[in-house]
C-alpha cells in the first residue's frame, strides 16, 4: 500500500526503545536547524533516523547512513521511503506462526534460553524468510517492526546480557514491563506497523539512506553535516552499539549471521564488537578530528554531552582550527533511558 496524504510532522516519528535516540530532542534541534541556511544534509551516524526524519520534514534533501545494518534499514523505511506503508502486512506475515512442525532455525538453536522463549525464537526464525521475500522498502518496514518488537520484549531493551531469567522470575513487580515482555510478537507487530505507517510521507526533496562508516562517507554535495557519535562518559565508559544490538544486526543480515557469532560469550555477540574508535576513550579524539576535517567544507552540527570524552572545549577547538565560527548551544539536562547520570547536560556544537 502507498500513502500519499501524509503531511510532514516530526512528531510522527515513532517511539523507540533504542538507546541514545534523539526523538525527544527534535524540537530543540529543529530550532537550531531553522537558524542555518542549507538545502542538503548528511546524517552519517543516523542511529534510529530521528534527526534525518526531522530534516526531511523541514524540506531538506537528507542522506542518512549508519555503520549498523539494522539502523540503515530503519532509515530506508522511515526516511528514504516516500509512500510505501505496512498496512495489513504485519498480520499477513505472522499468520500461522510459529509452525510447530518446522525444523529449528538459527535463532532457536544458537540463542536458546538467552533472550526469548523457545516459541518466540521459532517465530523469529520463521517470519524472517517472509520478511526477506518482500520488495524494498516493505522489507525494511517489516524488519523495523520485528526489531522494535524484539526490543520491547527485552529487559533493559538491550542484548548485552543473557538474562531471559529476569522475564521468567516469579516476583512482585512495581513496573509494567512484564506485560510488555509477555505480549505476543504478532500483537507488537501490528501496533508497530501502525506507528510506522503514521510516520511515512513524501518529502519535498528526494532523501536517501544507506550503510557506511562515517569516516569513509563522501562529503561532496552537502551543505550541512550532522554528527551524533556514541558517547564516552567522563569516567571513560563507552557505548558499543554493535554489542548492545548485535541481535538486530543478525535480523538485518541473516545470511551471514551464523558465521559472525562469538559463541564463547554467553550473550552470543557478533565479530567486530569493540573494533570501532568511537567507544574507546583513547581513540575517540582521533575519530572526532578526522570527521571534522573530512566534513569541514559544510556547516557542522554535533550533538554531544557536557561531560564527555573528549571535552566540549576540545571539540570546539578542532572546529575552530577547521576555520569554523563555533556556537555551543546548551539544551539543558536530559537523561537517556537506563542512565543514572543526572549531572550531564545535552549540548549542540554548531560550526559554520
Question: Would you kindly provide a written description of the structure presented here, covering whatever features stand out?
Answer:
This protein has helices spanning 26-34, 50-57, 69-80, 89-94, 106-110, 118-132, 138-152, 164-168, 177-182, 185-199, 241-244, 246-252, 257-260, 284-294, 312-321, and strands at 40-43, 61-66, 208-211, 224-227, 299-305, 326-333, 345-351. It is of the alpha/beta class. The protein has 2 domains: 1-6 and 25-83 and 203-238 and 280-323, Rossmann fold (3-Layer(aba) Sandwich), CATH 3.40.50; 88-199 and 248-270, no CATH class. Helix 3 crosses helix 7 and helix 6 (118-132) packs antiparallel against helix 7 (138-152).
How would you summarize what this structure contains?
This protein is α/β, with parallel strands linked by helices and 352 residues long. It folds into two domains: 1-6 and 25-83 and 203-238 and 280-323, Rossmann fold; 88-199 and 248-270, no CATH class.
